[in-house]
Design a protein that fits this description.
CATH superfamily of the largest domain in chain D: FAD/NAD(P)-binding domain
Shape of chain B: globular
Strand order of the largest sheet of chain B: 2-1-3-4
CATH class of the largest domain in chain D: Alpha Beta
Radius of gyration of chain B: 16 Å
Helix content of chain B: 40-55%
Helix content of chain D: 25-40%
CATH topology of the largest domain in chain D: FAD/NAD(P)-binding domain
Strand order of the largest sheet of chain D: 10-7-6-18-29
Largest sheet of chain D: 5 strands, parallel
Number of domains of chain D: 5
Oligomer: heterotetramer
CATH architecture of the largest domain in chain D: 3-Layer(bba) Sandwich
Shape of chain D: elongated
Chains: A alpha/beta (267), B alpha/beta (150), C alpha+beta (336), D alpha/beta (667)
CATH architecture of chain B: 3-Layer(aba) Sandwich
Number of domains of chain B: 1
Number of strands of chain B: 4
Distance between the termini of chain B: 22 Å
Chain lengths: 267, 150, 336, 667
Amino acid sequence: MINLVSRADELLESKAVQVVIGYEAGSTGKARPAFITDPSKTGSLIFDDRCVQNLAVYLTKKEVRYFGKAAIVATLPIMRSIMMLISEQQVFAENIVVLGVSAEGKYIDIAGIEVMQQYIATCDLGNPAKDQETLAMLNKMSTQQKFDFWQKELSKCIKCYACRQACPMCYCTRCAVECNQPQWIPVQSNLHGNTDWHILRAMHLAGRCISCGECGRACPVNIPCHLLTMHMADQVHNYFNVYAGTTDKMSSVMSTFEPNDKESFIQ
Amino acid sequence: MSEFEPKVVAFVCNWCTYAGADLTGTSRIRYASNVKIIRFPCTGRIDFMLLLKSFANGADGIIVSGCHPNDCHYTSGNFHAKRRWIMFKELMDFMGIDMNRITFSWVSAAEGARWAEVVNTTVARIRELGPYVSYKQMVNTAVEEEVTND
Amino acid sequence: METTSKTIRKHSLEKLYASLAENRKMYAPVAEADNRIGYKYNPDFSEVIFDHIQSTLSVKNVVFPRVENVIFYTNNKNDSTVTDVDLNKIPEVVLWGAHPCDTAAYDVLRSIFCWDTKDEFFAKRLEKLVVIGLACHKSDAHCFCTSVGLSPDSTKGSDILLVPLTNGDYKAEILTEKGNRILTDFSGLFEPYQDEETKLTHVEQQFDHKQVTQHLKEAFENPFWVENSLRCIGCGACAYVCPTCACFDIQDEAKGKNGKRYRSWDSCGFGLFTLHTSGHNPREVQSQRWRQRILHKFSYMPERNASLGCVGCGRCSRACPVDMNIAEQLQALQSI
Amino acid sequence: MARIGVFVCHCGENISATVDCHKVAETVGKLKHVAFSTDYKYMCSDPGQTLIKEAIKEHNLTGIVVSACSPRMHEPTFRKAAAEAGLNPFLCEMANLREHCSWVHEKNDMTTDKAIDLVRTLVEKVKINSALQPIKVPVTKTALVIGGGIAGIQSALDIANTGHKVILVERSPSIGGHMSQLSETFPTLDCSQCILTPRMVEVAQHPNITLYTYAEVEGLDGFIGNFTVKIRKKSKSLDEKICTGCGLCTTKCPQKKIPNEFEEGLGFRPAIYVPFPQAVPNKPVIDREHCTYYIKGKCKVCEVVCPTKAIRFDQPDEVIEVQIGAIVIATGFDIKRADFFPEYGFGKYKDVIDGLQFERLASASGPTSGAILRPSDGQVPKNIVFVACAGSRDPAKGIAYCSKICCMYTAKHAMLYKHKVHEGKASIFYMDIRSAGKNYEEFVRRAIEEDYVNYIRGRVSTIYERDGKLIVKGVDTLLGGQPVEIVADMVVLATAGVANHGAEELAQRLHVSYDSHKFFAEAHPKLKPVETNTAGIFLAGACQNPKDIPDSVSQASGAAVKVAALFSQNELTREPLVAFVNRTAPPLYSTCVGCFLCQSVCPYQAIEREDFKTRDGKIIKTVAKINEGLCQGCGTCVALCRSKSIDLHGYTNNQMYTEVMALLNEY
């Protein structure tokens, strides 16, 4: 990762950015997000298979913003998250520098948004293969089987909202579940409250999910909730031929329409 | 035991389907009284969460209806609604929530007879499907330790 | 009460389990998918495991369920009728095979729920609970019970503590009246303990909690909090898996004229937790919430409840998606 | 504490024949917060309304549910009654027991139960209704009229005469439009200039009218009563305040061979020019595209000869922003020109001309001083052919519509020709003669009967030149499709009227809709022919579709009345059923996070941005804000908003949620 480190060093040294958001070695053999402000400490930056968190989630975090301009280590899902955040006016392109990392873990120079756009265009933007397999398996089930599968999974949910907090697209100051007039989602983590919550989350990420899978990974009780949003991503592509996070000017699938949108169920 | 009477909630827009249902009335066309209408300004106003709330509170079926494409009083509310319904239906299908229980339709202000037909076919279909037991069970499932009052 | 030590043979355990299960709900650890451990009500004894390190969720739900109904009400034309929850419906439960950290957590919870006013829901549940603990012969890098004044064979919170023996049998320490009653009721299943060798894991002490508590008194404004919580994403995973976290929310939920008031788990790590109606939030950013979490457990509770708010189970560190390792941070805190 | 009144109407027997109205009133009366409940034969009758009003007062009701017919029928009636009793009209809801219940169901318990459910739903809703106040929007009492043709002139004068300020913007150097090019006008044959120029002068001198010629509208923001318009005043390259309009520069300009637009290319003009002698304002502009100085960097003859030193070669364009309250679009039309009719040789043969060119030939102030002469050789044409419907009513050519004015002006052209060339022969090929209008048919009859114009019903297939003559080949359908061939000296094509160039761009700039032919679209073809879909923007004249002068003037006056009516109020009042974005105390300001996805769902561009700033102007947060003047209340943004930060008055999230709950649960 010599390029990543030297580039981070250069950016901090020249004061082009005030913080580098990347990964460092964590406890018990894990890797974890790191925030480096001192050029002498860029040596701790790492990138390997353990670096899984979607760092884009920090771009909208208040305390990280206090630093000023940020450089961010970005794999494809993180780049796509950044595109979405710029499109939705949560992040300004001029305030970030992207330190690209390819699928093979190699540093790639992302000189600007256009370069990032070009890079994303060369990538496979579908869901990760193993998730796509699970989706296909689930899609083959009968309605009742699907219902039973999800009810079993969702009964585990304790409403800790790790899925929401880990998602870079869930940046709302007040989430709809916190709205109590009316109380759309039952607060209790019973089967009903859990089911409503996960439907709401998936609907709100329709056309916005960039298939990083971070929600499912963050879940402390292992609910594969990422499959819900990934299914939506899949269908958005299916119906509207759109992959989220390909440009910094995405027009949201759910806030636009084509008069000839195809469906077969409206009488 | 009395025969199962489906509870059906209809979410309709003010300008087309609500007016169409008014016309059904003015034309004295009879239809099943199982359906009850809630009036919205536009199909674009209909929140998908309200459909879930209906099932959670005992509805066995739902009708969502508005202006035909290109006829929206607000020019494009129904197009946006259509996209939402496409995605909503996909998600519901994926989660095993029975989409046969929701009728999506376009009924204009001039289609009084069509409204009656939409209602009657929906009620007949729901009658056949029976009460939405699995959803009701889901809603009533308590947490293991919970002390309930029944 | 004076502690009595007995031996219970491996084959007698099943009999004890079956006998207890006759008129009580059993709550015992079982293996789940993805190499996870979870507790389950009334599992078959064959499912019950004895060699787990840690379950994903704690067992606090037995005394502090994730949803606890508080009252039921009906709105009438001119008034409302309120019905209390029938606490007699709370069943007798035997918690079987919980590790000493989890059983010790009940003491911590008691110090919170019965601090001044006795929380009748909690107290009733605890009253109806028999705890048969299981000392640990396995541990992992996340375990730090020895750093918070406990050990793999702490007896705190257990009515009977089973300590594995090298020969595969168990030493049963009878610790309370409840434990004693079981001993009396099923005396045939117990044998005298003859100093057989116990099999216990070793958990390295990582910090001195007294020193941490001492340091925290001066640490409120320390930049440590911001530096070490930048990566915290503010989810509630740590609090929800924690055996001692006791924050809850109270909600009313009505359908038509009938409704109920319930309390459900909450977390001080959520931004909304301290948000005032005015819009002011005294814990506006995540570092303040993270600080609150640590201070509450390691400074406020020792001061107010005379009990440390942490039992060293390590669940929060295991669950954290961004590696907020509490032991690591406490170790660092001890030397600031 | 809510005190709700429920009024169940029998509607004669319309409801009570199937629904047990008494039972409905009785059952609903047992609900919490229902302070009064009754049934009555005719709620909408005077005694019925009195009953409601008295109950409101007597029981101090905080909301009422009238359970009767469709709210689409009587909601205004009962809301008015509520208001008269001192209850905010938006605290009155209607349960539709007639159209949605009694008329469509059998008489049985289930039907009555349904009626009870419907009423209960509205009772629960009305409990959480808010008293809404009509929205008041201030009105800037200045109108903008775009286009200085006869329609624009008429509108501007009419509005100005009601005492309101008008800004008239014209893109060419003079007002007057196509009408100033015309020779005489049908059906009276009075001189166009004679009737128009006094109006033009009136515009220039009117104290309430500000005239910007050589100017264009660049952009528009805002909404009815409160528009901000950006106007680009193109540089005229001279100081108008100093210029006396002596005209010396125009005679001395060495560049003299520029095709004269006003003369439809039949004459020439210099680079510094006044479009026509009666132009208003009568001061020249420099056509920078053709001026030698601007092309080659030297000349400046005009500057040298100008007695007042008014020439300003380096004068820049000026963009001004003006606050206005209403807009009249009167940008007029154009006609199809060259290369659209290769089969007629238009553009190839000099003596095949269009209607506007003929107007200039016939005009006393035109290039031939009113003599009808052939452009090719200046000879008087002995035999002249007029072709009506050149392009119009021809779907194959892409124009299916009738241009409306051609029948009349072709008859006029033929008459003018005959009046000037007594011995000449005039023939008109036509499809149908459309002469509906006061004195129009008589006018056409005169052409035929008194001036012996030869009307041939049929289309011209081709025109070609032979021996200096134009051979016009067509058919006479009245003679069974018999071929007709006329050897003509000159042919005049009544080409189709089309949208003016730049109409589409302007429509987009003004956010108004236009049809497939780029004509501006009216809000309703019959009942709102003067309005556009955008409130506060009106149409006048041929920018909507080809129109003759009386129609244009009528519509212009109509548009002026619409503007005047708008300006007669100090504030506009609107139904308050509009969306709103929540506001909370700092530091949150709003739960809106400013993703602005709502902006793209809004059909009315009603969602704006609002910045919250620190005292030194630093932006803390930007959130969405609904422009109440533009929002029509569809609520599409409300259902989209993830954080539930937008809501819709009258159909709030809480109200709709409550309705669902109330409809399905026991109370």
